[in-house]
């Protein structure tokens, strides 16, 4: 069943146009929305919440048109970036707030509170005020409050961005567990690519107010639909080579690469384009049947399980990610080769070929 | 080695001594800088208070024929205080002042709160209305008094609008005079309440309000459960401020009714004025002034301690 369906929604601001946005979120899905800062992610959330009415198109919630529905009526709860806990209430009062508001019976409130504190492991902090809690505890209470509402879907607007790295990783696992165990629909917004990719079933990449691509994290990473998506997904970012396709459409000639690269598919013959190679698809050394060339190593970042090598190819910095620890002298010449199975080709408009 | 370090140590000692001396001298110098202000404070605060206290224990009036500092000649062992607690005119004035306070201040509070609530959302013309809203409190109270004096005339616009005959008097009627004064005070001071409460209301983080709204709270519930608790401090400040100010109400009453008809609208301030310039009972005025000062301070302390409790 579809929990949230947005069709061709457009919202025009004086200096910014959002959309047209079309996306569907299935019931029980963990849906990620990723995009660089200020690209319209929050506006999409507002469309879903009903805080923003689309100029065109519509938002449908579980089969009901959202146009006439009030914010409170939509049954969508939200966890805010700064959590928006009520500081004058204890953890318990915060969690049961939505239940009291809709006039639930004392028994129902008690049951729901038990359930929520069970899932979120917050029983021991229910008596505290938010000010007395740690960042992680506050996080749980905020989630608990959204959970208690028993809503159609939960929107999370960078809810763990404020936590430190270790806690963030823990909360990520926790969120996923919560979502799975309760078959809840989550819409998770973040500008942290790694976070969204790690946690979501499907990801929508938002760039300049438009959805550039929707797909599983693997699809978005392995087959970015456009140059723009390729640029924002992946860390370190994809290496891009400007160049053109030859007349036969079998070779790509990059300005900076010493030899042309054999390609497959149906590229626009004789037109300009871009070749993208992920850092992990560049290997150290020669390899049979793969294009290879020489670079100058400029710095090496040993990161434990893998190593990032920054190398100069003419004027361009090349990022190479190689497994394990690699020791290379700075300034030395190194022969590298491209994995020809994983080349990403984009035409002159930036569309994937 | 020792020969080399020894003089150095003594040197630093000398240095520290020097700086300590400078600091001490600095404190001395600071005292001389502050002294004029201290003297001024003694003259404008401490001296008048002590003088008032002194006079309040005597029969002294300017007609006594002796200078005030010789008032000990007519020392009366606190009989002024006894006279005050048995003076029906004093209690009447006190009661009327309290009456104005307990009617006007809550009215200003509720009106100010309602207006502030209207103003938390954006709407066309908000800034213009905001400026208009604040105008009454910018006007000199005496002018407000004059305005309402004219409005409440028998042949004035209020009777005209309400379709009442010119004989229907406001300011000279035993009950309606008080109502008129209260209305004028509410009109003038609701804006201040509005301003303070709006500031407090805007201080409630908007995402908390949004969260409450998303979680299904009605506007009224959100107001009671989210906005009010967070405004507690501001509310106390606004109420204490207005209560103390309202207790001192003078200009409006003086100009609109001059305490009349009879003493029907005579407040503490007007009574004190009449005693000072009409009866020349300066020692008695000093007695009442001191007593009211103590009472008001206690009232304000009580209010502010509520705030500290939070």
Textual characterization of the structure:
The complex is a heterodimer of chains A (353) and B (310). Chain A is built from eight helices and 20 strands. With 353 residues, chain A is of the alpha+beta class. Chain A has two domains: 2-231, Rossmann fold (3-Layer(aba) Sandwich), CATH 3.40.50.300; 237-347, OB fold (Dihydrolipoamide Acetyltransferase, E2P). A six-stranded mixed sheet of chain A has the order 6-7-8-3-9-10, with helices on both faces. In chain A, a hairpin with a 2-residue loop joins β17 and β18. Chain A is globular and about 75 Å long. By secondary structure, chain B is an all-alpha fold. Chain B folds into two domains: 2-55; 87-279, Orthogonal Bundle (MetI-like fold), CATH 1.10.3720.10. In chain B, 75% of the residues lie in helices and 0% in strands. Chain B is built from twelve helices and no strands. Chain B has helices at residues 2-55, 79-85, 88-119, 126-138, 141-151, 157-162, 176-202, 206-214, 219-247, 251-256, 268-279, 282-309. In chain B, α1 packs across α12 (282-309) and α3 (88-119) packs across α7 (176-202). The longest helix of chain B is centred in the first third of the chain and has 54 residues, at 2-55. Chain B is flat, with a radius of gyration of 28 Å. Chain B starts with a helix and ends with a helix.
């Amino acid at each position: 069943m579809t929990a949230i369906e947005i069709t061709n929604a457009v919202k025009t601001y004086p200096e910014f146009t959002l959309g047209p946005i079309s996306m569907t979120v299935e019931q029980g899905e963990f849906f990620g929305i990723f995009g660089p800062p200020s690209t319209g992610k929050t506006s999409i959330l507002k469309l879903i919440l009903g805080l923003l009415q689309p100029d065109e198109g519509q938002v449908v919630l579980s089969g009901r048109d959202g146009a006439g529905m009030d914010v409170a009526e939509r049954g969508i709860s939200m966890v805010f970036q700064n959590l928006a806990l009520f500081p004058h209430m204890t953890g318990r009062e915060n969690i049961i707030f939505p239940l009291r508001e809709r006039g639930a019976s004392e028994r129902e409130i008690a049951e729901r509170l038990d359930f929520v504190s069970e899932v979120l492991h917050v029983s021991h902090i229910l008596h505290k005020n938010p000010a007395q809690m740690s960042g992680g505890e506050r996080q749980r209470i905020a989630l608990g409050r959204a959970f208690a509402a028993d809503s159609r879907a939960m929107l999370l607007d960078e809810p763990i961005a404020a936590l430190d790295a270790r806690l963030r990783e823990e909360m990520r696992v926790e969120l996923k567990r919560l979502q799975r165990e309760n078959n809840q629909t989550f819409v998770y917004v973040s500008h942290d690519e790694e976070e969204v990719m790690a946690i979501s079933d499907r990801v929508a990449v938002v760039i300049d107010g438009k959805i550039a691509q929707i797909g599983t994290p693997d699809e978005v990473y392995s087959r970015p639909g456009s140059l723009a998506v390729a640029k924002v997904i992946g860390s370190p970012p994809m290496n891009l080579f400007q160049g053109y396709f030859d007349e036969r459409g079998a070779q790509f000639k990059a300005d900076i690469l010493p030899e042309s690269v054999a390609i497959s598919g149906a590229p626009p013959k004789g037109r300009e384009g871009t070749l993208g190679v992920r850092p992990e698809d560049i290997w150290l050394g020669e390899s049979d049947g793969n294009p290879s060339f020489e670079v100058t190593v400029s710095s090496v970042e040993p990161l434990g399980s893998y190593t990032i090598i920054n190398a100069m190819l003419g004027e361009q910095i090349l990022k190479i990610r190689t497994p394990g620890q690699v020791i290379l002298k700075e300034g030395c010449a190194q022969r590298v080769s491209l994995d020809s199975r994983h080349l990403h080709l984009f035409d002159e408009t930036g569309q994937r070929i | 080695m020792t020969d080399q370090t020894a003089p150095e140590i003594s040197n630093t000692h000398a240095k520290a001594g020097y700086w300590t001396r400078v600091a001490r001298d600095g404190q001395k110098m600071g005292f001389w800088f502050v002294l004029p202000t201290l003297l001024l404070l003694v003259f404008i605060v401490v001296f008048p208070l002590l003088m008032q206290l002194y006079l309040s224990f005597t029969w002294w009036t300017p007609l006594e024929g002796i200078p005030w500092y010789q008032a000990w000649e007519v020392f009366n062992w606190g009989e002024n205080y006894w006279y005050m607690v048995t003076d029906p005119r004093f209690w009447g004035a006190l009661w009327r002042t309290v009456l104005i306070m307990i009617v006007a201040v809550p009215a200003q509070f509720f009106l100010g709160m309602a207006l502030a609530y209207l103003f938390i959302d954006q709407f066309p013309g908000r800034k213009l209305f905001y400026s208009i809203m604040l105008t009454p409190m910018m006007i000199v109270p005496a002018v407000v008094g004059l305005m309402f004096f004219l409005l409440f005339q028998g042949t004035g616009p209020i009777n005209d609008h309400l379709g009442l005959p010119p004989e229907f008097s406001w300011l000279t009627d035993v009950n309606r005079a008080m109502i008129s004064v209260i209305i004028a005070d509410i009109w003038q001071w609701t804006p201040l309440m509005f301003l303070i409460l709006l500031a407090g209301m805007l201080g409630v983080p908007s995402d908390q309000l949004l969260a409450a709204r998303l979680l299904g709270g009605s506007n009224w519930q959100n107001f009671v459960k989210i906005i009010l608790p967070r405004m507690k401090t501001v509310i106390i400040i606004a109420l204490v401020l207005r209560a103390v100010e309202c207790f001192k109400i003078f200009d409006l009453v003086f100009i609109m009714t001059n305490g009349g008809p009879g003493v029907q609208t005579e407040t503490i301030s007007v009574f004190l004025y009449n005693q000072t310039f009409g009866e020349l009972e300066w020692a008695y005025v000093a007695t009442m002034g001191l007593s009211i000062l103590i009472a008001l301070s206690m009232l304000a302390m009580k209010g502010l301690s509520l705030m500290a409790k939070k």
